[in-house]
Each structure stands twice: as C-alpha cells, then as structure tokens.
C-alpha cells in the first residue's frame, strides 16, 4: 500500500515498481498519450510557433497579473457574479462551505478540478454534512475507492478494467450479478445511470477552470464527457474554483491556449466540450445557474512572482510533461504522495508542502529534458528542479552519502591533475573488471540503475586524455 505523503517517495517508488497491476495499467496507457500527442503535433506545422505564442501570453499576463485580476473581477461582478479572494486552502474551503450553506446545499456535483484536490475540498465538505459527488468518470471511480487521482487529466490511470468492475460491484450493491463489464461502454453506461439522478438533485455545482478571461469575465472548462456542463448548468449555484494564474487577457488568447491544451494533453485538436461561462443566468438565457461565484486561490502563487519559480505559473495542467517522464511512466502518480505528480508536481509540491517534506521529489528526475521539450508553454522544468536541489543542498537536506560524493567531486575538480588521474584510473578499472562482456550487471554505488539493466563499461580513454592527445598531435 502506497502512503499518500510526499516524504515517503523512495519507499513508494520501490513498492510501485513491484506492483504488477499498476505496471500493467501504466504499460497500457502511457505510450498512447505519447503517440497521440506526437501525431497531433505532426499534423500542425505551426505548433512550435503556437508554443512561443502560449509562453508569451502567459508571461505577459504574469507580468501584469494585478491589472488582469482586477479587470477580470470587475467583469465577473458586472455580469452578476461574485468573486471571492482566498489566500490559502483554509480560506478557500471556508468560502465554498459558506456558499453551500447559504444555498442549503446537501449535495454538490463536481467537475474534475485539481485545485479542489489541492485544497482538500471533498473531505472538508463531507465533514460538514455536504456530500460532494465527482462526475468525471475517472474521478467518480477513485471517489468510490477513496483514492487520490494518480494523474492530473486521467485520475484513474492506475486502474485496469477488472478494477473498475470490482469497484462497481462493491459500491453498487444492487448491481445485477450477470452484468458484464468487458467494454469501456459497459463502464460508461453504469456510471451514467448512477450519476444522472445526482446531477438533477445537486444544489450546487463546483468546477475548476482551465482559463479565466479578463476581457469578458468568463471561465472556460474543457471536458470529453460533458459532465462539466451538467455540473455548471443544472444546479442553482455554480462555484468556479481557480488559481490566480489561470488568467489570460482576451478571448483570442484563450483560443490560442485551447489549441495548445488539447493537443498536448490528449492529442485531440480540441476537447469534445469547451464551455465558456459568464456570470449568472440572465432573463433571456434558456439555462444556467441563478448564482455564479468564483473562488480565486492564491495558496503561495503570488510568492512565486518575480522569483526563480515564476515560470511554473505558466502551467496549463496539460500533463504532457507527466506523460513523457521516464520516472512517472515507471511508477505512476500515487508514489509521489502529492496532488500533482510528475515533473510539474516535483516543482510545485515543495512549494505547497515545504522542501523538508517533499525533498525527494526534485530528485525524481533523470534530467533527460523530455518534460521541457513537450511542455506547450516551454516551462524550463529541469532548471527549476535544479533550483530545488540547490536549496536542498544548502539546507543540508541532501543525504550524507550524496553530500560526501559531491564534496569529493568538488575537491577533485579543484585539483585538475588529480582529477584526470582519478578518472583515468577509474575508467581503466571499470574496463578491466567488465572483461569481454563490456557491461556491468551490478555497479557499486549505482545498484539502483544497474540492478535492472546492464551498464556499459567506458570505451577508450577519458575525454581529458583524448583532448590532451589531440592537442599534442596538433603541435
Ligand atoms: S508543466 Fe508544461 S507540460 Fe507539464 S502540465 Fe504544465 S503546461 Fe503541461
């Protein structure tokens, strides 16, 4: 059983590697995300230009965030909505509960929203006699299983088909024993049938927002199931919960970001449903909520402005970095023990939970750079992970063995002739001991790497020795 705290990452990662069900689920879904994104990108010649545009829109917004926040709030109020400014998770949860109580809400339906996971909303509402019902298919099943999402756009990615059936049979005790769940359609039919009545009965609908538009005061959500639309149009009250970094200046900017989002996330040109909501229902509207509230959450975000982590606020939660990360694709999301997994989570979690608690996460990276290369808004994720590692080292949170190794390397680097001698001797020793095979199976101090794969012995001489030989030959 994986522990849902980020300080358990090393033990969780080991357990995840041994979990055959998880490994099967990861093998089934991981490569699909990569292939679909690659196909979508290949079909759009201007995708690189679009990435630049997306980065620039977000950078511009962040540089003028106070201006756009005020402009957005004014538009929301003008269209009959209410904006609630919340510094942290406690304030946000309290505000949402207050709105629910004012609406005499007993049940609330929810669209998929990572920011409500971030503030721990479901448990809080349930403790206060308001029942939250997740309506995204993946969120619905993990709510039945009392689990956290393991992925930011595919929350039940860790499950196999048989897990769905077992969970439905345990939770829906009136289920016909002869019903079969061999196809995805069977799962959808069951979830739809159960959720229909919940949609109709809910007093409040809560969604996140993929974007907030300052020009119009609109919130935008994208889904592939249409559950978000039913969540926000059927109940009397709609609450949007969003981080302050979700702003974009104009409708046109939102359109640019949407073109990037679906391609990077699921490889679609556009998500099946893209819904813009502006204010409460007006007299001429056919549907919509009587009350429209936006809960704007800071929770440490404003502290990132102007610092070395500001670029992270460009994140549009597409999960491309997660889908392409060799660490995430080997261990899944629960091992991180945090709301946000993968490279983006390894940057964000120390920010939210503190470096002491989450110190292992910035080390959950090979620095291969794939995350940055697929990020639609060009966030330099490896650079930010390195910033965390530097802080970890400065605060003496790095394990003693790693500190010792780094100190030895630093000392050698300051003594070039000794460095050359040592690296030459080490390369020779490794070549000799590898023998004819030319590879190691168990390398001392690197068993985590070489237990599962052969490690090639160095070929030829060291770089410095070759450089010196080339220089001598030129003279
Ligand atoms: S960091 Fe980039 S790739 Fe990762 S979720 Fe955010 S926007 Fe997507």
Index terms:
475 residues; alpha/beta; six-stranded parallel sheet; four-stranded mixed sheet; 23 helices; 52% helix; globular; binds iron/sulfur cluster
How does this structure look, described?
- Strands 1-10-7-4-2-3 form a six-stranded parallel sheet, sandwiched between helices.
- It is of the alpha/beta class and 475 residues long.
- Strand 5 and strand 6 form a beta hairpin.
- The radius of gyration is 25 Å and the shape is globular.
- Helix 3 crosses helix 12 (251-265) and helix 16 runs parallel beside helix 19 (381-394).
- The protein has 23 helices and twelve strands.
- It binds iron/sulfur cluster.
- The site of iron/sulfur cluster (SF4) has 14 residues, from helix 14.
Layout of helices and strands, plus pairs?
Layout (H helix, E strand, L loop, with lengths): L8 H10 L1 H23 L4 H17 L1 H14 L3 E5 L2 H14 L4 E4 L3 H5 L2 H7 L3 E4 L2 H8 L16 H11 L12 H18 L2 E4 L3 E3 L4 E6 L3 H7 L3 E7 L3 E2 L2 H15 L7 E5 L13 E7 L3 H4 L15 H4 L4 H4 L10 H12 L1 H4 L11 H5 L6 H14 L5 H14 L2 H19 L4 E2 L6 H4 L4 E2 L6 H12 L1
Parallel strand pairs: 1-10, 2-3, 2-4, 4-7, 5-8, 7-10
Antiparallel strand pairs: 5-6, 6-9, 11-12
Helix pairs in contact: 3-12, 16-19
Bound molecules: iron/sulfur cluster (SF4).
The site of iron/sulfur cluster (SF4) has 14 residues, from helix 14.
